[in-house]
Amino acid sequence: WCWLLLAALASPRMVGLRMDVSMLLEPLGFVKILEWVFAIFVFATCGGFRGETTLLVSCEGVVNKTVTAAFAYPFRLNTVAFSAPDPKGCGGTWTDVCLMGDFSSSAHFFVALAALVFLYCVAALVVYIGYNHVYQQNNKFPLTDLAISFLIAFLWLVSTFVWAKALVDIKVSTGASIVPGIESCKAPGTTCHFLSVTSMGILNVSVVFGLLNMILWAGNVWLVFKDTNLHSQWNRISESP
Fold first, then answer.
1. Are strands 50-59 and 62-72 parallel, antiparallel or unpaired?
2. SS3 56
3. With 0-12 CB in 10 A as exposed, 13-18 as middle and 19+ as buried, what is 142?
4. What's the CA gap between 29 and 128, in Å, rounded?
5. How far is CA 50 from the centre of its chain?
6. Is residue 10 included in any domain, yes or no?
7. Does any domain span residue 4?
8. Number of folded domains in the chain?
9. 39-82: pLDDT as tens digits
10. Is 181 in contact with 192 (CB distance < 8 Å)?
11. Residue 140's domain spans which residues?
12. By three-state DSSP, how is residue 67 classified?
């Protein structure tokens, strides 16, 4: 698909560039625009997230202090540490404590798919607008588009559920449940209280956009299928006695 697109763009005299923006008003073109926009939303809501979780630490002879661990995409939480509030004041019992878990693979998979889908949508829109006559005349284009659309729909299904599971674990690893696991908080005279964690509503939205992308691409499979000779063959088979 990409090779054919590059050949078309590099040889406009051979293929013939015919700009036709009316294709964007048809279901196939309009859905592609939505897929392009929603891919941007996935990239922005997940890839641009920054947050922090905060504890209140009380030590003997020391005023209460807050310690903060800042985390962000790609959510390698095991590299994010709470710095010591006052090691001497806590009798030297406090050591830097890291959060638990590395969720970078799930986050990378989700965001990388959004980036690749964004590029594919741009390429597809170029073909739809400038080379629609070639797309309609050569059945290899719709068949290739159908195969890629089916693959992308499946990848959205997998990546969204993988990321949703990772997001649940991220909330656990940055929430109040982390306090009992911090050894420094168990030292005599030391008390830790969970204060807050940044709202992850925007990450919940990223999961929603992942599901919407999956639905859009599933519908896109049907729209592309109707442009292939497979659809006409299926109609002939179903109409035959």
1. antiparallel
2. strand
3. buried
4. 7
5. 15
6. no
7. no
8. 1
9. 999 999 998 899 999 988 887 766 677 888 899 999 999 998 88
10. no
11. 21-239
12. strand
